[in-house]
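Structure tokens please, single chain.
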Amino acid sequence: MLKLIQLEMKKLHLVGYIRSALIANACILGLLSIIALDSQNEGVPEFTQYAQLLELMDNMVRATFIVFASVLLCRFIVGEFKSKSITILFMYPIHRQKLMIAKLLIVLLFTFLSIVISEIIITAAIHLLNQFVIIVPDKLTLSILADQLARTLINAVAASFMGLVPLYMGMRRYSVPTTIVTSILIVALLFSNNNGATLSSIAPVQISFSVLGMLVAYAAIRRIEYKDIA
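Here you go.
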């Protein structure tokens, strides 16, 4: 399985996606800085504590990489079924289910690591920037970092599985646009701010969507065993 994952990763050319992830980080950092500085200029600071800023950052990062996961699914799974290039892989002496599991694991791991590493990078950048320009009038303590790390790991796992939900719609017609639009709709539903709260902050909702992602992955693995690609 490990060799299969390595072969699939080489085919995916992850360097381009890593570059795009870093650009997304820069955009999130810039947007957070603009929100903070603009609100301070208006005399009503948006962030008075690091916890507030880190919570918004967490939502933005997860939303970004859930959509990012749909792009990977399109490139890695839906697109191959649509172009029927997947049939070439099926000619190899590789179990179909193992092939699908390898592809899904790569998407899951890339999404998880992207969220965790992105939050570390952006948090460090905010802390460094805060030494020169006051973004948040608060001190970043070890206690805040420990809480944020624990929350990041849990949310990253949940978001990784949420990112698989659009695969269900994409595989129905092997449609790339449908897959991406579905992910955008999910993000809009879960991360829209409603009086300071989001659906993604409600544990049962987050768990439900994570379980739904697991079920979609399981259905895709089972389906590929019996589905003929004409």
